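Re-run requested by the PI after the first attempt was lost when the workstation crashed. Everything re-entered from the original request form. Ligand of interest: 2-acetamido-2-deoxy-beta-D-glucopyranose.
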Amino acid sequence: MNLMKFRWILLFVIVLLVFWYNYMTKLAGSGGDVKSSLSLPGYVRITPGKMDQFLDIHNKQCALVSSSGQMLNAGLGKEIDKADFVIRMNNAPTQGFERDVGNKTSLRVVSHTTVPWLLKNEIHYFQQSASTIYVIWGPENKMRQDGKGPIFNALMKVAKKYPNVKLYAVTRKKIQDCDNIFQNETGKNRMQSGAFLSTGFFTMILAMDICDNIQVYGMINDSYCGQVKHKRVPYHYYEKSWIDECRMYNAHEKARHGGHRFITEKAIYARWASQKHVYFKNPSWAL
Ligand SMILES: *[C@@H]1O[C@H](CO)[C@@H](O)[C@H](O)[C@H]1NC(C)=O
Ligand SMILES: *[C@@H]1O[C@H](CO)[C@@H](O)[C@H](O)[C@H]1NC(C)=O
Ligand SMILES: *[C@@H]1O[C@H](CO)[C@@H](O)[C@H](O)[C@H]1NC(C)=O
């Protein structure tokens, strides 16, 4: 009888030990989570299964290369490639433009509207340039993760086909944060004012999230287009049938619906630049 009792107690102790062990290993695991809380919860990796990995990079010296025609004939490629980390936007190519824009691409911030282009050229983007990090932003109806977001679904297919590709989505919360920042800076509700944030805006925020020091190349300031003798350059350096950059910016600034407030955004960057380590080159901004 006593032996029976002893066995029960022993069993009880073993069960306790098992629970304790599980608990301790979970704690050790959450030690890992403490580290990942230093990572950036605004950018989540697109992976089959549980999406709980966040962008976890930090760089001292970043180059943010705009897609503006200002980059043409500037010969800044070598200088750009010297940066620790080179950030580009959408599908802005380097091939054929190396002398002006460099040939290194560490990360691309990509609009949901450009994702079909990446898919059409998947060999280039996801095999030849597989070391590049892709961060995609888009509205909820395109990026929702419940199977009803067409762009998210397409990206998930890429993640399954190319498991090594580092694909991230800007989270819904982060996009709301960006809207709040816009509203805070301008006093206008982004949506009610009929505007969409540009890829440039998300890129600037991301750069400030991951870089200590940002050198921005080819971005004009908010008074540039108002000056009589401004340079007429293509809106994008890589588009042949080109639209003048300032005409594009002015049209968008005035658009009642669906416009990007490129010029307003530039005024916001100028305020940030005076507080953080953000520098503008070609043209350079006097802050
Ligand atoms: C990039 O340019 C450097 C020299 O500027 C060269 O050594 C390197 O091979 C180039 N890399 C690619 C991927 O083209
Ligand atoms: C809005 O601006 C105020 C004052 O400048 C600042 O304290 C606050 O953090 C800002 N909020 C956001 C979401 O940027
Ligand atoms: C804006 O850019 C123009 C042309 O590059 C320059 O002349 C002007 O000083 C700049 N303004 C500010 C406030 O940086």
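Saved to the shared folder this time. The radius of gyration is 24 Å.
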